[in-house]
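If you are new to this repository, start here. Below is one unmodified record pulled from the training split, so you can see the exact layout before writing a loader.
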Amino acid sequence: MARLTKIIIIITISVGILAVLWRDTFDPGVLSAARILLTGASKGIGEQMAYHYARFGGELVITARNKTLLKQVEEKCLQLGAKKVYSFSADMSDPKSADRVVQFALEKLGSLDYLVLNHIGNDPFDMWNRNAELTSWMMQVNFLSYVQMTAAALPTLTKTNGSIIVVSSLCGKIAIPYVTSYSASKFALDGFFNSLRLELMMEKKNVSITLCILGLIDTESAMEKIRARGILTVSPSPASEAALSIIKGGAVRAQEIYHPWWIVSIVYTRDWFTELRDKLIYNMYPVKDGQ
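And here is the target side for that same chain:
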């Protein structure tokens, strides 16, 4: 009990310090006429990001698998004030899609200021059943396609001193049950893009990389999965608020952003008491009969 009390005190102090130090320096003007390629834009956080970028007057290429939903988002973005919007349906499980999407964006916008990588593959939210094919598929969609799109877009982003925004998850910092393949892909994003940031600095290339660590967000797919498991222990954050946090973080060229902001304390203290951490996580996830 004393150990748990100590952890709570340390986390509280850390959160308090971060709250005092945080300053919102976001200037919406920097996004007016900005050329943005946004993936996973047909629903959820990606859809909300598209609407925010539209209100700020950006020029958008949006992509996702669902062509019908994507077209609806495109039309609404134009209504909200986007200077240009083009949609391109693509399945990121196909390794060729990344180059096609980036080429389409360059043809329509001429160049890029922001590459916003947000798409994800649907995870079954279940115990891993030795399905290596699922893990391979998840790595392609959630990780390798991010790398492929970055490789294709990096030359133009280097010329424009642009930004790469990578939408990740707390599951890419802390391992939890039921998301083995998903978590692996998110941990991979953390390692690759943090390493790439250092290499770009060494090469004197002024391309920023913002890694966005998200907690529980009230997207339809996420809420369905956790409710089915009976593990809703915290209130989810609205997708629109998460989307705006991501956009602000990318615009100010932050290295990492956390939403909700207090989850940063969980990441900073994750390795202090590993046994207790795992016990707490275990107790949060009730095991159903037969599992």
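Two things worth knowing about this chain: Strands lie at 35-39, 59-64, 84-89, 114-117, 163-169, 208-214, 256-259. The chain has ten helices and seven strands.
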